[in-house]
Amino acid sequence: MRSFMFLTLLLAAICGTTAQHVHLDIPEVEGYVQSMLGEFNHYTRYPGPSPTYWKHPSPRPTKPAPSPPANSCAYWLENIKHQGIAAFNPSPSTYQVFRNVKDFGAKGDGVTDDTAAINNAISSGGRCGPGTCSSTTVTPAVVYFPAGMYMINASIIDYYYTQLIGNPNCLPTIRAFPTFSGGLGLIDGDQYGANGLGFGATNVFWRQIRNFIIDMTLVPSTSSVTGIHWPTAQATSIQNVIFQMSSNNGTQHQGIFIESGSGGFMNDLVFYGGLNGAVFGNQQFTMRNLTFYNAVTAIDQIWDWGWTYKSITINNCSVGLDMSSGGPTAQSVGSVTFIDSSISNTPVGIKTAHGPGSQPPTAGSLIVENVALNNVPIAIEGANGATALAGTTGQTTIAGWGEGHSYTLNGPNNFEGPITPVSRPGSLVQAGGKYYERSKPQYQQYPVSSFVSARNFGATGNGHTDDTVALQAAISAAKAHNKILFVDHGDYLVSRTIYIPSGSRIVGESYSVILSTGNFFNNINKPQPIVQIGKSGESGTIELSDMIVSTQGQQRGAVLFEFNLNSPLSSPSGLWDVHSRVGGFAGSNLQLAQCPTTPTVNVTAANLNQNCIAAFMTMHLTKSSSGLYLENIWLWVADHDVEDPALTQITVYAGRGLLDESQSGTFWLVGTAVEHHVLYEYQFAYTRNVFAGQIQTETAYYQPNPSAPLPFPYVASLNDPQFPSLTAIDGTVSIPDADGWGLRIVHSNNILIYGAGLYSFFNNYSTTCSNHGNGEVCQYRNFEVISSNAINVYNLNTVGTHYMIEVSSTLGKLMVGRVLTGLQVDGQNVAYYGDNVDGFVDTIALFRTSS
């Protein structure tokens, strides 16, 4: 059992004491990665092939697997002409973006060892591999698997900026021989080397795995083989994957193993068998529609800060979710939000280590809402085997239950027991009362004739030619002819707004980039959208996936996304795997050479680097808009240069993160993150009816040098925050009080947050302020509620923030700090961090205002 002190240092080292996106080379971290395999030995130990594999019930296959009917497997992505280019690769004319593994010699016949061919398809072309490259955007790849059974005898090694995509109409199978020689995972997303993980897990961005069967059933059940090893960070996903494992007594198989990172999103996964269907440890994650059959433990949660599970189905397991890691004296799971799910024929639904006197005090925070049980005798098991919530051998539904600290409105209250569930607005739910959800469309039902390519309209994507006219023509023509627009990989330079009308369906390739440039986007007093989705008063829906919007150079008036559509509740618009990237990449002209950090210089309006003012706002949900589903969206202002081998920090300024001021509301933010903006990351102003979870933020690393709002002027019409004081005093300690807000809720109703991580790691690039035990003095406050009702936040986790919540006058009597007071005026502090300690983070399980 790991001691609390070791656990605190371990989690602080890998996840917070330094920037989550900065190359981790301090001694504590080096020691951690060196000991990782030993620390998690029972998850990672794979002894190699069985010496008696011929006696295994399923010996090495010798007959080719039958081929499915060709017509039933036709998939447009396999058949469309591939014209993608890596615009800023050293050899863009010869570099290959799309790779079909069969073009590299893979057979997929169920007999041939395809390991080398698949790894060659991934690695060829001088790509960024683990242990040889930290990160880059100039070697993207789509590695495509046609239908077939691909036999492997060693791990498939994933590379940076790679999309592994199978045929969704006939899922390809990746199957391990019984002689599988090891590597951590049939697919290893971050291969270990002599110095630990090949990529820093918190810096692994922009990658996907989707549409596969991962088959481990030939490997002896006594071998601890893993399906996918996936330490990962933002803008990553696994979708539509089936894991087949042994269900024999004593099985040691596991489907997914994650031990570190800063994720992330997964959905539509099915797990059969195994000791552990999945083993998860990461700062935060959102996971939706995971189904487990016949595992010993469906989900083994080894550590986290915050985790949101939605639409989880667990069948015939011994334990559904085990979040008891570390035991009651050293809990390593910070918080879990578990909603809209079901558990059947499982003796223990959820196992925790939380209980009276458990440590850290708020670790093991748990919220359960709308979870159906069928023959689950113990719904929730607490510390030392005590029954926290009895289950049933029949059927029942947990409407609402939780444990941890609450502020509703007074606090902190240490609670364990039933809670009143959120009164869900009808516009946010689907049949059965669950929150609406929809997976990214892959358009597998459409023939290739239903698609048109942006290249066919003259768009070059070469990062140098102005593609505004050609790209707009492609979008307009696709809409007019009811086609789906395929934006081949590239960097599409635009000098005017790109308008996406209702009815558009657009899909990118390995995150195709729309890159703004020029004076049109450079007037800070007249901001202009780069991508405008609908116009004010326009109704209808759009679908957009696998794209990035970015800026090039100084773009002081750029609004990366402006959403104006009024989409119907019956058919909301959707953005899936769509991200922003401001600075820090090849072609941005906002890299280390242009935007170095200056922590030893007192930055003022007079000497601030004007050339690195790169965006006015990242995403604007306007007053006329409504009905938008966002899934796996990362709005990132770069804190480091992705192309620099040392991942050196940079200073780039973008004013505002995500602003929602829709008057009608109705938005779903599923697995979203917003980072490093000047004024705020998320702001909900005069809006209503929002589901959001998990959300995650980081305060800009350079703040308070300069403090907000510099370099952006105050705009009252956008309900900008004001920063009347630069510092706040608590006793003898001076704390920055003019850093950007992580989350602001202003004159809004029914803002429903199902898991939030609001992180402030830095003070002028120093992490001393967030080091464990240093008083959380990076930022005075990070979450503000002003004159709003029916605000519900489950599992709020903060780092480096002295007071976790600020509230306005309309909320009545509140526990301010640690003293109960009467009616409050605007700007009073609620929830002192020291009352809610959860190891490196601070956690409140439930914050709720009046309805």
Automatic annotation (TrEMBL):
The keyword Cytoplasm does not apply. Residues 98-322, 451-522 form the Rhamnogalacturonase A/B/Epimerase-like pectate lyase domain. Keywords: Signal. InterPro entries: Pectin_lyas_fold (IPR012334), Pectin_lyase_fold/virulence (IPR011050), QRT3-like (IPR039279), RHGA/B-epi-like_pectate_lyase (IPR024535). GO terms for molecular function: polygalacturonase activity. Residues 1-19 form the signal peptide. This is Rhamnogalacturonase A/B/Epimerase-like pectate lyase domain-containing protein.
